[in-house]
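Section 5: illustrative case.
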């Protein structure tokens, strides 16, 4: 049965791929946009102001929800969206938070998870680990300018996940009901430290790329220089500290369990995006 599915965050790293997958499967996909809609496949929703919320779920069977980057008050932004989904008769909601979000009941993301669990909606919660795609977005400047991955994470390993695998998981969870009301930590299939990451990027690009550990202070200055809000920059420093402490190393089988396909290896990601790091 084909469904009408709303994708919130449709222009993001996961959302773009999710829209493509669902459309290829024949579903009627509506992309939430904070701008004025330009087609019937778009619906207006500004998560920051709440504008468009009253009508965005009209006729929607299932929806994908995530928090806009740059904000740390995720519960204030997303809980009203969950309430509106309930009021609008949405049948299923898939929420993306982040690995470790359930470690602290007071954390804003955890409050959203709890709100969804208690809403009465059929749901799934996915908590992905750090995205591979960060290396050609958030962390790209040091690689392009200095040939260096600059992060304050020591020798800790991370089971990085390709955002395309996250989208594949979401596409299954939105369209099948056999895993309703479960939550999943999503990781890649290998745990790598940043020296290993840099070596894989070097192999893919033919450039010499190395990892250099920097201080939290230097990282904070970098983040603020890119224009990130101060509270969000401090939030990133905190979660990078969790990475350094070893919390991002665990590997889960969820991607293969849900999609039937093993998660992409970092080497494959590096090959697919190698042009991003070529100067």
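Designed sequence:
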């Amino acid at each position: 049965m084909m469904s009408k599915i709303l994708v919130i965050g449709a222009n993001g790293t996961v959302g773009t791929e999710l829209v493509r997958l669902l459309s290829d499967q024949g579903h009627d996909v509506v992309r939430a946009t904070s701008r004025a809609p330009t087609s019937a496949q778009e619906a207006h929703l500004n998560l920051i102001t709440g504008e468009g919320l009253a009508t965005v779920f009209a006729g929607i069977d299932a929806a994908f929800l995530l928090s806009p980057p740059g904000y740390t008050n995720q519960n204030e932004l997303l809980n009203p969206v969950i309430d509106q989904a309930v009021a609008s008769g949405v049948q299923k909601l898939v929420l993306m938070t982040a690995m470790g979000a359930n470690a602290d009941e007071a954390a804003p993301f955890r409050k959203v998870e709890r709100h969804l669990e208690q809403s009465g909606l059929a749901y799934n919660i996915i908590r992905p680990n750090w995205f591979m795609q960060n290396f050609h977005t958030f962390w790209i400047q040091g690689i392009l300018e200095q040939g260096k991955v600059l992060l304050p994470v020591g020798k800790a390993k991370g089971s990085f996940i390709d955002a395309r695998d996250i989208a594949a998981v979401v596409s299954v969870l939105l369209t099948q009901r056999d895993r309703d009301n479960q939550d999943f930590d999503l990781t890649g299939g290998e745990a790598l430290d940043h020296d290993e990451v840099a070596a894989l990027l070097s192999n893919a690009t033919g450039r010499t790329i190395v990892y250099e550990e920097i201080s939290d202070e230097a990282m904070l200055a970098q983040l603020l220089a890119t224009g990130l809000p101060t509270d969000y920059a401090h939030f990133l420093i905190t979660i990078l500290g969790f990475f350094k402490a070893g919390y991002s190393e665990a590997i889960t089988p969820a991607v293969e369990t849900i999609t039937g396909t093993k998660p992409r290896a970092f080497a494959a990601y590096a090959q697919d995006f190698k042009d991003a790091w070529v100067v």
